[in-house]
Amino acid sequence: MQQPQPGGFGQAPPYGGQPPYGGQPPYGGQAPPYAGQAPPYGGQAPYDGHGGAVMAPPQPPPGCPPGLQYLAMIDQLVVKQKVELLEAFSGFETNNKYKIFNSLGQMVYTSKEDTDCCTRQMCGPSRPFDMVVSDNQGMEVIHLNRPLRCQACCCPCCLQEMEVSSPPGTVIGTIEQQWTLIYPQFVIKDEGGNPVLKIEGPLCPISCCGDVDFKVISVQTGTEVGLITKQWSGFAKEAFTDADNFGISFPLDLDVKVKATLLGALFLIDFMFFEQKQNNNHDN
């Protein structure tokens, strides 16, 4: 079975960082087994139940929430949404499911939306939801909660937000939409409620035969330090499904809790701008 390709996020990372697994990870963590390669003695690299390679669990660095130790060693992720045939042919909205890979094509996490049928059909992409992000052993490592909010730009009093917890029940960050009339903007806050990053989207966040970039900007320096990209998946997939592919990059030495919060921001952006098929096909 062909492993998923990371696309443009498989290149050398920006910010002068080293490619994943090039040496010892930060935060005092341990280097991954066999440096990300096939193990010695003729053994095989770890695989999931469908033949795809998965990332072997490293030791957690000090102060790292359980399961987030993967994020300490990487500066890029690729997120692929599962295509639901029922939804593609009938339009019946189902729970979104995603697989999350590192730049080597190894599966790091899976995620699944948790909402009831009535909420999905009535509220559409504006729906409130909980999302569970699990590691390769099936343990929940990140919990996302999006409350019901207004998505119209003319209502600055009830903007989009998301709460990120790891382990579940312990808030490690939040994403809050900023009121603007032109460019979509979000602020990433840490566990203490302090702004650490901003996300700025394009004037027209519509995927039309090309990628759509959302810049990640440091609040402290005002410089661009990362990118969330909605990747063009081809005409057929874009036109007939709302299953999307995303890439995300961030500094290698960024706090793992902020990395997890950025991952939550990726899902919020997907629901806000790319969940409807007509958004992908620029028909709105």
Strand content: 25-35%
Along the chain, the helix and strand elements come as EHEEHEEEEEEEEHEHH
Side by side, the strands of the main sheet go 1-2-3-4-5-6-7-8-9-10-11-12
* Overall geometry: globular
Cα distance, first to last residue? Answer: 37 Å
Radius of gyration: 18 Å
Estimate the helix proportion, in percent.
10-25%
User: What's the mean pLDDT score?
Assistant: 76
3D structure, described in words:
This protein is α+β, with helices and mostly antiparallel strands and 284 residues long. 15% of the residues lie in helices and 27% in strands. The chain has helices spanning 85-90, 117-123, 235-240, 256-274, 277-280; strands at residues 76-81, 97-101, 107-114, 129-134, 140-146, 161-165, 171-178, 185-190, 195-200, 212-218, 224-231, 245-249. Strands 1-2-3-4-5-6-7-8-9-10-11-12 form a twelve-stranded antiparallel β-barrel.
